[in-house]
Amino acid sequence: MAEAEKANWYVVHTYSGYENKVKANIEKTIENRHLEEQILEVRVPMQDVVELKNGAKKQVQKKMFPGYVLINMIMNDDTWYVVRNTRGVTGFVGPGSKPVPLTEAEMRPLGIKVEDVVVDFAEGDTVAVIAGVWKDTVGVIQTMNYGKQIVTINVDLFGRETPVEISFTEIKKM
User: Fold this and answer.
1) Cβ contacts of residue 127 below 8 Å, gap of 6+?
2) 70 within domain boundaries
3) pTM recorded for the entire structure
């Protein structure tokens, strides 16, 4: 593999109603086989819908594409095999056995951002958490994952250094 491989979003067809189970199974396989660098994210796109039941309006989340799961991955024989042989997956969307990645135009309405985020911090930098559960916490960046746009920092929890994952948008350099 001479050139650096780029991750793309692919669509996987599943048995209807199995989308979340497929997502969980793929995420478990990623963890077990240490494929975190090749399969970056698995999504079941949801949308807020207002339902009218017994005269009362209720906001619920529904799957945007029942029977489909989106996967951000680097396509190679290993990742193809892992996804294709996950229980509940019937195949990739694309002609024959060749999966076709989504284009930027197809991903935009799904709320998936493809532009690279430029950050002013790096591994070893001290950062302050400005939002979320760990707000007002200070930590040192241990690792950075540009694909998922998260950093791992060590925080002091009950007198112990504990690694936590935080979104790029929730931290600022000190």
Assistant:
1) 121, 138, 139, 140, 141, 151, 153, 171, 172, 173, 174
2) yes
3) 0.61
